[in-house]
Amino acid sequence: MSRPLRLPRLVAVSLTLGVALPLPAFAQSTRDKVIEITTQALKANGAKDVSYGKIEGDDARFTISDTKIVSEVEGKTSTVTVARTTWTGAKPTADGGYSADEVLAESFDLEADDAKVKADRVLLTKYVGQAPAKVVPGKVSGERVQRAEVTGITITTEDAKVVPIASVTFSADDYVGDMPRKASFDMKGLVVPLDPADPDVAQARALGYEKVTLDVAFSGTWDDTTGRLDIPSFTIGAADMGTLKLAVAIGGLTPAVIEEMKKAEADQAKQMELLQQLTVEKASLRWDDASLVTRVIGMQAKEQGVDSKTYAKQIKLMLPAILSMVGNKDFEKKVASAAGTFLEAPKSLTVSAMPKQPLPVAQIMGAAMMAPQSLPSVLGAEVSAND
Questions:
Q1: 357 assigned to some structural domain
Q2: For the chain, what is the mean pLDDT?
Q3: Is 242 exposed, middle or buried (0-12, 13-18, 19+ CB in 10 A)?
Q4: Distances (CA, A) of 386 to 247, 348, 352
Q5: 176 falls within a domain
Q6: How many whole angstroms separate alpha carbon 275 and alpha carbon 261?
Q7: From first to last of its 387 residues, what are the pLDDT tens digits of the chain?
Q8: Would 342 be classed as within a structural domain?
Q9: How many CB atoms lie within 10 A of CB 122?
Q10: What is the rounded distance in angstroms from the CA atom of residue 193 to the CA atom of residue 183?
Q11: The pLDDT value given to residue 27
Q12: How many angstroms separate the CA atoms of 294 and 303, rounded?
């Protein structure tokens, strides 16, 4: 049985990959100061051995060849090697850290106890690294990057499964403390093989899938004054399956609340209390089918000995009885109508919540527990198909 993939926090720091051996005590160039700070930051984060090859270039732009970092974090050993790292516009910061206009790492290789990660190219833009004295092993805080692009990624799990990822791009801008007011994430070409010997994926293989190819995209904005978090699009798309898209706007997520949630990291009761202070302005969940539902209906129809159209009509006729347990006649009709339309011609299905005014999470939870049949009305819920 495979264990969850755990990559040390060292990866976040070592992506900067500006490492060096202790330098002489005489006056240092900006280049050498940055190298020394990154070395000490790596060691503060668990690096036991740091070595490098040739260093070429000047303060404006320099390259480090053959970086090697051996680390131990939480009892786990990892080794990072990078063939070539190029720094542009690097300099120390006033708080003892370092920054760079651009850091390019080529042929990045991480070998940990439970996984291996390779990347052809890692590009960081407007990177700010922590001062060694502020580094907390195992945690990411205080580090910033305006944009990160990683291409040609290969992850090999402990049980030797190989998972390639074409590219990952992340951007963040307009920071308030550690939190950006704008952020986006885009991952393309994550390929997960479906092992015939794995019982957990037997149903997916029965539907005709030998692998799952995923694309994930996210974008959001945050207003630190009002605490409004707007996520217009969080999309997960699977080739030949379909695309799931979430959109949500939440209020009350102020810097003070975020700080309290950080402090209550190990206190679930406190975190739940803090979450109840938030409000929901709107939310929607949409599924665009690209054959997954069609295949499921076809497989179940075959098991029942009927064709797909007949089976879809049978389910449609059963929906009112199935939905009667909701206890909200108006909403039951909306769901039955939309779901029936979708089953007969699977294209898209959307569930949305548009309350008349922002709803406290506490009120939503209260309605769910005390009068669940009222929840669709409280949320202003709507259901539509094939629009």
A1: yes
A2: 90
A3: buried
A4: 18, 5, 14
A5: no
A6: 9
A7: 444 444 444 444 444 443 333 333 345 799 999 999 999 999 998 899 999 999 999 999 999 999 999 988 777 889 999 999 999 999 999 999 999 999 999 999 999 988 899 999 999 999 999 999 998 876 666 789 999 999 999 999 888 889 999 999 999 999 887 789 999 999 999 999 999 999 999 999 999 999 999 999 999 999 999 999 999 999 999 999 999 999 999 999 999 999 898 888 888 889 889 998 899 999 999 999 999 999 999 999 999 999 999 999 999 999 999 999 889 999 999 999 999 999 999 999 999 999 999 999 999 999 999 999 999 999 999 999 999
A8: yes
A9: 25
A10: 30
A11: 52
A12: 14
Residue in 183, 180, 157, 158 with CA at minimum distance from that of residue 170 = 183
Residue given tokens 């990866």 in the structure block: 11
List CB contacts of 273: < 8 A, sequence separation 6 or more: none
For the chain, the three-class secondary structure string (H helix, E strand, C coil) is CCCCCCCCCHHHHHCCCCCCCCCCCCCCCHHHHHHHHHHHHHHHCCEEEEECCCEEECCCEEEEEEEEEEEEECCEEEEEEEEEEEEECCEECCCCCEEEEEEEEEEEEEEECCEEEEEEEEEEEEEEECCHHHCCCCCCCCCEEEEEEEEEEEEEECCCCEEEEEEEEEEEEEEECCEEEEEEEEEEEEEEECCCCCHHHHHHHHCCCCEEEEEEEEEEEEECCCCEEEEEEEEEEECCCEEEEEEEEEECCCHHHHHHHHHCCCCHHHHHHHHCCCEEEEEEEEEEECCHHHHHHHHHHHHHCCCHHHHHHHHHHHHHHHHHHHCCHHHHHHHHHHHHHHHHCCCEEEEEECCCCCEEHHHHHHHHHHCHHHHHHHHCEEEEECC
Q: What is the pTM of this model?
A: 0.84
Token representation of residue 84? 């070539």
Tokens 């704008």 correspond to what residue? 182
The Cα 219–Cα 366 span in angstroms is 30
If we measure between CA atoms, which residue out of 81, 100, 85 comes closest to residue 33? 100
Report the number of distinct structural domains present in the chain: 2
The residue length of the chain stands at 387
Q: Which domain holds residue 354?
A: 292-385
In a domain, 344, yes or no: yes
Residue type, 199: P
Tokens of 108: 């990045």
